[in-house]
Design a protein that fits this description.
This protein is of the alpha+beta class and 339 residues long. It has 13 helices and 9 strands. The chain has a 4-stranded antiparallel beta sheet, sandwiched between helices. Strands 7-8-9 form a 3-stranded antiparallel beta sheet. A two-stranded antiparallel ribbon has the order 1-2. A hairpin with a 2-residue loop joins strand 8 and strand 9. Helix 11 packs antiparallel against helix 12.
Length: 339
């Protein structure tokens, strides 16, 4: 593997490619259109700042979201997101070299739906599972631990300096935490937990696992075995990664009761939406109905959005549920209360 290089980050061509990737789906967003309208001079200015060492990330814009759970999202300025994309592209071979086959976040050809299908396949061959979750994962990642594991790949001093500048923004506690919303946060966080995957495989000899960021599933032969893994994982994560598992979120159970994972409940030959996702589905369709009734959406727009929502639900075995919800909407066009 070729060592990551600052020169392959702070050059016109990779920065231009990074800008076009960062703009996907956001071309009308604040700052994006003006950057793209002056793409060449903007890239040249960014390249110059990086090379002379004057580039510094701008303050993040923060906002709250409520679904799927309350969170504070931090959005970087678009020109900083260009740098994030360029850095992640250069470090991607490093991330991939450490990634387990069954790690599904931030990787091409993977994703949450693939993770759910993989969990279903594992459930057909292993009768017990343990589900683990890290408390306040992004907010508590220690920078020293992350940098120590990145150090062999950051021998280029200038590239290391760019990474340090990215890490310096958006901290509530100095030296700790990654802002939720940055591309670099996702990739750095996923990389950091790849060492938990390695511990599971090499030390605990877990035969089957699935991880999507900090949502961890391990499958095994019996209650005693997977329960023992949970205890050892809790100790190891605290001692080695400086993180904490949520004891209240740790689940040790047989797969025949259903595996709760990423908003789905998974059995060996069946995947359902969990109750919270069903309520969310109904709520989103109800919102579309109200927008349509108030003329904020035309019929075509409402149908396209409703089709997108129902297509998302189709990743589970929800044919009857989707038919029932659509029938309910036709029979009762008034907005329905969630739940």
């Amino acid at each position: 593997m070729i060592a990551p290089s600052f020169d392959r980050v702070a050059a016109f061509a990779p920065l231009r490619r990074a800008a076009l990737r960062a703009a996907r789906g956001h071309r009308t967003g604040r700052g994006v259109a003006s950057f793209l309208a002056n793409l060449e001079p903007e890239i040249l200015a960014l390249e110059r700042e990086l090379r002379v060492g004057t580039w510094s990330p701008r303050p993040l814009t923060t906002f709250h979201i409520r679904e799927p759970k309350p969170r504070i999202i931090s959005a970087a300025d678009f020109r900083d997101r260009v740098v994030h994309h360029a850095v992640c592209a250069e470090l991607d071979p490093v991330f991939e070299a450490h990634a387990d086959t069954d790690s599904y976040a931030c990787r091409p050809g993977k994703g949450s739906h693939a993770a759910v299908l993989r969990a279903e396949a594992h459930a057909r061959h292993h009768p017990w599972f343990v589900k683990l979750d890290v408390r306040h994962f992004f907010e508590t990642i220690p920078h020293d631990g992350l940098l120590r594991r990145l150090a062999p790949s950051l021998r280029d001093r200038r590239l290391r300096d760019v990474v340090l500048r990215i890490l310096s923004v958006g901290q509530s506690t100095p030296g700790t935490g990654l802002p939720i919303g940055n591309l670099t946060s996702q990739h750095f966080g996923n990389f950091y937990l790849s060492f938990l995957d390695q511990y599971a495989r090499r030390t605990l000899r877990v035969p089957a696992l699935v991880r999507y960021m900090d949502d961890v599933l391990w499958f095994g032969p019996d209650k005693a075995t997977v329960g023992g893994w949970a205890i050892l994982a809790d100790e190891w994560v605290t001692r080695t990664l400086g993180l904490t598992l949520k004891p209240e979120a740790t689940i040790v159970a047989p797969v025949h009761v259903g595996v709760p994972y990423l908003g789905f409940r998974i059995w060996p030959h069946l995947v359902r939406l969990d109750a919270a996702r069903v309520r969310r589905l109904r709520r989103r369709l109800g919102t579309l109905a109200r927008l349509r009734a108030g003329c904020a959406l035309d019929d075509d727009g409402a149908q396209r959005r409703a089709g997108s929502v129902l297509a998302w639900a189709s990743h589970a075995d929800t044919l009857q549920l989707r038919r029932r919800i659509v029938a309910d909407r036709r029979d009762d066009p008034k907005p329905r209360r969630a739940g």
